[in-house]
Design a protein that fits this description.
By secondary structure, the protein is α+β, with helices and mostly antiparallel strands. It has one domain: Aminopeptidase, CATH 3.40.630. It is 29% helix and 33% strand. The protein is built from five helices and eight strands, in the order βααβββαβαββαβ. It has an eight-stranded mixed β-sheet. Strand 4, helix 3 and strand 5 form a beta-alpha-beta unit. The radius of gyration is 15 Å and the shape is globular.
């Protein structure tokens, strides 16, 4: 099957997306979040905002963030292994930044494993910089997390986020 990025659609995560999101979560992380954790984020956490990327009707990636005052904290981002290296992760990160900017967020932060050089490279390409380490942050193997921050600028966030074709982002 040939990849057509015009078939990608950004949408808000819904409860009906949780089985697909959880499958991607299990492929992506050694200690995956449960379906209940995602459900709680969607239903109970007023700070939480989650988006999915679809290819047709299939969820191929997702991203979540908490908005606290003027800061956005990326809580999770993952792309299905069969859909990686197609720019979807980058699109999700750009989309959540645009979305956050609309809610007066001016700084974004995230944690990433010190060993995950691929993700760090992606984040740096989008303007994130390293600002510290959280020792033994990951419970599965006590690995340190690199703390990364990014200042949001009006120029990168001026395009309105929309549900639909990725070209509308």
């Amino acid at each position: 099957m040939e990849f057509d990025d015009n078939k990608l659609q950004l949408d808000f995560m819904t409860i009906s997306d949780l089985p697909a999101v959880h499958a991607i979560e299990r492929y992506s992380f050694p200690k995956p979040w449960s379906v209940q954790t995602f459900l709680s984020e969607l239903v109970d956490n007023e700070c939480a905002h989650y988006l999915v990327m679809r290819y047709g009707k299939q969820v191929v990636g997702y991203i979540g963030m908490w908005i606290i005052l003027d800061e956005g904290h990326i809580t999770t981002v993952a792309v299905h292994p069969g859909w990686r290296r197609k720019g979807i992760g980058s699109m999700l990160l750009k989309a959540i930044a645009k979305y956050a900017y609309r809610y007066s967020v001016r700084r974004m932060t995230l944690e990433v494993r010190v060993s995950n050089e691929g993700a760090q490279s992606l984040y740096r390409s989008l303007g994130y910089q390293s600002f510290g380490v959280r020792p033994q942050y990951y419970i599965d193997n006590k690995e340190d997390a690199l703390i990364m921050w990014k200042e949001l600028t009006e120029n990168e966030c001026e395009i309105e986020i929309g549900v639909g074709n990725r070209n509308e982002l």
